[in-house]
Amino acid sequence: MDLALWIVAGLLALAFGAGGALKIVVPKEKIITVRTGRWAEDWSPGAIKAIGALEVLAAAGLVLPAALGVAPVLVPLAAVGLVLVMAGAIIVHARRGEGKQILGNLVYVVLAAFVAWGRFNPAPPIL
């Protein structure tokens, strides 16, 4: 189970680290030109950068605390944060009628919820 949690957390960290970094450095005008980036039309450049910063912080929080052995409780908290960010994304896409993006967001919600559940409820050691 621990290996599955590490794999899922690592994949989420890669996806959200890269996606968040792009939101921070790529201008709003370029994000809007991407087929899956139309949501950015409804947001200010500062809000897009803030969302990106939250995603980068969550990505770091998914792996660094456990890998370094410092405050590992931050891992499930980061995962819960991603669930909340993706819930917001689902609402935005639903308002815009972007059903295909909602499906992708739901996958991220399930994966992040799995990490949160697994790290909040560690399995007892095998004797």
UniProtKB/TrEMBL annotation:
Keywords: Membrane, Transmembrane, Transmembrane helix. Its main location: membrane. Pfam families: DoxX_2 (PF13564). Coiled coil: none annotated. Signal peptide: none annotated. It is found in: Membrane. It is a multi-pass membrane protein. The keyword Transmembrane helix applies. This is DoxX family protein. It comes from Streptomonospora wellingtoniae.
